[in-house]
Amino acid sequence: MPRIVGRIDTPNSSKYLQQLCKHFGHKISVEHDTHSGHARFSMGSARLTADDQTLTVEFPSIGSEDIPTAHDVIDRHLEKFAFRENITGLNWSPPTSG
User: Fold this and answer.
1) pLDDT band for position 98 (cuts 50, 70, 90)
2) How far apart are CA 47 and CA 51, in angstroms?
3) DSSP 38-70
4) Nearest residue to 14 (alpha-carbon basis) of 33, 39, 42, 41
5) How far apart are CA 20 and CA 10, in angstroms?
6) Residues 6+ apart with CB under 8 A from 60
7) Three-class secondary structure of residue 75 per DSSP
8) pTM surpassing 0.85?
């Protein structure tokens, strides 16, 4: 199964990680702190990390057919939380072999 990784440079990476995790936690199993998170979506599990300048979301193993859904779910929610920065989603790398 492929692995996908998306990143965005923002000084608010920890804030957005926490907002995403808290929001997703209303519907799915999520664990997080200020710099890392783990969300268990039906399409696969996502690992979220935040450092001083970058938010990273990784699906280490996801079905090829689920990649567009993963991109859409993460990007749509991030856009809502990061509207002040005009973020239009993560910069997703092409899928790689897990």
Assistant:
1) low
2) 13
3) EEEETTEEEEEEE-SSEEEEEESS--GGGHHHH
4) 33
5) 15
6) 3, 44, 45, 47, 98
7) helix
8) yes
